[in-house]
Structure to design on (105 residues):
Protein backbone atom coordinates (compact mmCIF):
# COMPACT_ATOMS: atom_id res chain seq x y z
CA UNK A 1 0.00 0.00 0.00
CA UNK A 2 1.23 3.57 -0.58
CA UNK A 3 0.91 4.54 3.08
CA UNK A 4 4.60 4.17 3.89
CA UNK A 5 5.49 6.26 0.85
CA UNK A 6 3.17 9.02 2.08
CA UNK A 7 4.68 8.88 5.57
CA UNK A 8 8.17 9.12 4.12
CA UNK A 9 7.27 12.15 2.01
CA UNK A 10 5.65 13.89 5.00
CA UNK A 11 8.64 13.20 7.23
CA UNK A 12 11.18 14.31 4.62
CA UNK A 13 11.38 17.97 5.82
CA UNK A 14 11.99 16.80 9.39
CA UNK A 15 14.70 14.41 8.26
CA UNK A 16 16.37 17.17 6.24
CA UNK A 17 16.34 19.52 9.24
CA UNK A 18 17.79 16.82 11.46
CA UNK A 19 20.50 16.05 8.89
CA UNK A 20 21.46 19.74 8.64
CA UNK A 21 21.62 20.00 12.43
CA UNK A 22 23.79 16.89 12.61
CA UNK A 23 26.16 18.31 9.97
CA UNK A 24 26.43 21.63 11.82
CA UNK A 25 27.01 19.76 15.07
CA UNK A 26 29.80 17.71 13.48
CA UNK A 27 31.48 20.88 12.19
CA UNK A 28 31.25 22.53 15.58
CA UNK A 29 32.59 19.44 17.33
CA UNK A 30 35.49 19.36 14.89
CA UNK A 31 36.19 23.03 15.52
CA UNK A 32 36.01 22.43 19.29
CA UNK A 33 38.92 20.00 19.06
CA UNK A 34 41.19 22.82 17.88
CA UNK A 35 42.00 25.23 20.73
CA UNK A 36 40.76 28.78 20.11
CA UNK A 37 41.11 30.22 23.58
CA UNK A 38 38.71 29.84 26.47
CA UNK A 39 36.23 32.45 25.22
CA UNK A 40 35.96 30.83 21.81
CA UNK A 41 35.55 27.39 23.31
CA UNK A 42 32.80 28.57 25.64
CA UNK A 43 30.91 30.08 22.73
CA UNK A 44 31.45 26.93 20.76
CA UNK A 45 30.21 24.73 23.60
CA UNK A 46 27.15 26.92 24.00
CA UNK A 47 26.44 26.62 20.26
CA UNK A 48 26.88 22.86 20.48
CA UNK A 49 24.46 22.65 23.40
CA UNK A 50 21.87 24.72 21.55
CA UNK A 51 22.25 22.57 18.43
CA UNK A 52 21.84 19.39 20.45
CA UNK A 53 18.64 20.76 22.01
CA UNK A 54 17.30 21.66 18.57
CA UNK A 55 18.24 18.25 17.22
CA UNK A 56 16.51 16.46 20.10
CA UNK A 57 13.42 18.64 19.64
CA UNK A 58 13.35 17.97 15.88
CA UNK A 59 13.69 14.22 16.44
CA UNK A 60 10.89 14.27 19.04
CA UNK A 61 8.67 16.24 16.66
CA UNK A 62 9.46 13.79 13.87
CA UNK A 63 8.67 10.79 16.09
CA UNK A 64 5.37 12.35 17.21
CA UNK A 65 4.36 13.07 13.62
CA UNK A 66 5.31 9.56 12.55
CA UNK A 67 3.24 8.01 15.35
CA UNK A 68 0.29 10.23 14.43
CA UNK A 69 0.53 9.16 10.78
CA UNK A 70 0.85 5.48 11.69
CA UNK A 71 -2.24 5.70 13.91
CA UNK A 72 -4.20 7.47 11.17
CA UNK A 73 -3.08 4.84 8.66
CA UNK A 74 -4.30 2.04 10.96
CA UNK A 75 -7.70 3.74 11.31
CA UNK A 76 -8.01 4.09 7.55
CA UNK A 77 -7.04 0.46 6.97
CA UNK A 78 -9.70 -0.58 9.50
CA UNK A 79 -12.30 1.50 7.66
CA UNK A 80 -11.25 0.00 4.32
CA UNK A 81 -11.65 -3.50 5.72
CA UNK A 82 -15.19 -2.81 6.88
CA UNK A 83 -16.11 -1.01 3.67
CA UNK A 84 -14.90 -4.01 1.65
CA UNK A 85 -17.01 -6.31 3.82
CA UNK A 86 -20.07 -4.08 3.38
CA UNK A 87 -19.61 -4.04 -0.40
CA UNK A 88 -19.17 -7.82 -0.45
CA UNK A 89 -22.34 -8.27 1.64
CA UNK A 90 -24.26 -5.97 -0.69
CA UNK A 91 -22.95 -7.86 -3.74
CA UNK A 92 -23.96 -11.17 -2.16
CA UNK A 93 -27.46 -9.87 -1.44
CA UNK A 94 -27.80 -8.58 -5.01
CA UNK A 95 -26.63 -11.90 -6.42
CA UNK A 96 -29.10 -13.76 -4.18
CA UNK A 97 -31.93 -11.45 -5.25
CA UNK A 98 -31.04 -11.90 -8.94
CA UNK A 99 -30.94 -15.67 -8.49
CA UNK A 100 -34.34 -15.57 -6.78
CA UNK A 101 -35.77 -13.48 -9.62
CA UNK A 102 -34.28 -15.83 -12.22
CA UNK A 103 -35.95 -18.81 -10.55
CA UNK A 104 -39.28 -16.98 -10.45
CA UNK A 105 -39.26 -16.27 -14.19
Amino acid sequence: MGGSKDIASLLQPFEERAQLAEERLAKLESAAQHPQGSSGQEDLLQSLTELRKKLVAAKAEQDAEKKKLIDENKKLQYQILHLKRAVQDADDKCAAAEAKLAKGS
